[in-house]
Amino acid sequence: MTALETLHLIPTVFQPFRNVTAAESTRHGGVSPLPFASLNVGLNTADAPENVQENRRRFFASLAIDPEQVVSSHQVHQDRILKVTEPGRFEGYDALITNRPDHFLTVTVADCTPILIYDAGQKAVAAIHAGWRGTVARIVEKTVAAMQEQFGTQPADCYAYVGTCIDLCSFEVGNEVADQFDKAYKQFDPAQQKFRIDLKAANVAQLAKAGLPMGQIGISPYSTVLHNLDFYSYRAGNGTTGRMLAVIGIRSAE
């Protein structure tokens, strides 16, 4: 048993807003056997579909979310953004935005960075999947810009959470990846002759560049690799592992 023996974590940055439901799942409290143990919510894994569906049911139930109100996309590590007008599963988007209540946006991760945004002024939300490709493509900045265009969002009114992902000390990459990152977000390891990338810092910087106050940005203290007993890591699992969900939505007044 570990210290995080819970189905989900609630980002503290959103806790003052009672109308906002936001969370990220852990790997605890599900029904999947090894190597997916136990709360694997990834639809595109080799786990038994009935296990995944039960895990997803448990996760959403723990947050009092109706699965019929959930929005997801098959993510492709690019920078396409979908303005959501109805629940369902879509194809080819790595960021979802909406100003509709009772639409709960989700992204799936297992090392990539989940970013959740709440616009307290215009009552809109975003869920973003940012691996290294999405980070290089500046998907976070583009999502904030899309919220400004679609909803009239003012970045100063926004609160954001940069979720659990692979950490700097674990994310070794070759020059072909490192060359695409600013020097502020990479460190060279002379022993390994490789660079290490800080995805959290790179995405926090994009939020700040987009205009969000640093005091309104929460950052997960956890790592998918260093805390692999609590979170799934694609890298630590050599490609065979479960997935977590990050979710955000605004509840209707009633």
UniProtKB/TrEMBL annotation:
<dbReference type="InterPro" id="IPR011324">
    <property type="entry name" value="Cytotoxic_necrot_fac-like_cat"/>
</dbReference>
<protein>
    <recommendedName>
        <fullName>Purine nucleoside phosphorylase</fullName>
    </recommendedName>
</protein>
<keyword id="KW-0479">Metal-binding</keyword>
<keyword id="KW-0808">Transferase</keyword>
<keyword id="KW-0378">Hydrolase</keyword>
<dbReference type="GO" id="GO:0005507">
    <property type="term" value="F:copper ion binding"/>
</dbReference>
<dbReference type="GO" id="GO:0017061">
    <property type="term" value="F:S-methyl-5-thioadenosine phosphorylase activity"/>
</dbReference>
<dbReference type="GO" id="GO:0016787">
    <property type="term" value="F:hydrolase activity"/>
</dbReference>
<comment type="similarity">
    <text>Belongs to the purine nucleoside phosphorylase YfiH/LACC1 family.</text>
</comment>
<dbReference type="InterPro" id="IPR003730">
    <property type="entry name" value="Cu_polyphenol_OxRdtase"/>
</dbReference>
<keyword id="KW-0862">Zinc</keyword>
<dbReference type="Pfam" id="PF02578">
    <property type="entry name" value="Cu-oxidase_4"/>
</dbReference>
<dbReference type="InterPro" id="IPR038371">
    <property type="entry name" value="Cu_polyphenol_OxRdtase_sf"/>
</dbReference>
